[in-house]
Amino acid sequence: MVKKIVFGNFKGGVGKTTNSVMFSYELAKEGYKVLLCDLDPQANSTQLLNRTYRRQHGEPLDIDKTMMVAIQENDLEPSVVEIMDNLFLLPSNKDFVDYPDYLELTFPPDVPDYKETRIAHFSNLLSEIEDQYDLIIIDCPPTISIYTNSAIYSSDLIVVVLQTQQRSLDGALAFWEYAQTFYNKYENVDFGIAGILPVLMKNDSGVDNQIIKDSIEIFGTKNVFSNIVKHRDRLKRYDREGIADPDITDTWDYHDKRIHELYSAIANEFIERIEVED
């Protein structure tokens, strides 16, 4: 049965997009059929996977239909593109900024329960294609918005990405508290927490270690990933050039190998957490 997972934090710049993409990529390498949904009009996940496709195939990713057009046609499937074996993308684009206006016009206030109907719309469309995948990972903006609400409404599990700085911890706590309030507000949502994923700003830093200790105290030991995303400059290069893969391209080195080993370990812990939830 498919699992839909939202990556979130109400603090921007914490590595949420990078980690949602790396999770999707590594889980696909592990043999899971993965769909990454980019529910952010900034389209950062789409840009990263576009660069990855270009790096690995030597040509740009061909996106015939944006997600916004697919939503207007009430069929998401034609917008889905294949990045590599087992990894698929529901791409965002600058036209996705029109999504809130589209919902207001499609579901005006005279529609029964119009607020929830708007929030549930993406989930309803996603349900038509979700059984084609093992895992669906949803990246959303670091704000309270119809995009984030739509992502949470669609989800089975939430991963809170926690960069080891105080503002990120505050944003992580705010996101989780908002999600709990959201859970209590709508009867048709049912999600759990897959974990708090620590992302180090610096390796072996006193402040970073203290933030991790604080997160364990706040969220509980079982809710914090034991595998930690250590600071890696190579991830910045991936944002610019796309993901290097030892099995696909010949332009990789030891640093790329370490990145894939790290995310393989985190992905395996993630799967274990999903199995515990079941």
From TrEMBL:
Q: Which Pfam families match?
A: AAA_31 (PF13614)
Domain AAA per the UniProt entry, residue ranges: 3-186
Show the PANTHER family listed in the entry.
COBYRINIC ACID AC-DIAMIDE SYNTHASE, P-LOOP CONTAINING NUCLEOSIDE TRIPHOSPHATE HYDROLASE
Per its record, how is this protein called by name? Replication-associated protein RepB
Organism, by scientific name, is Enterococcus hermanniensis
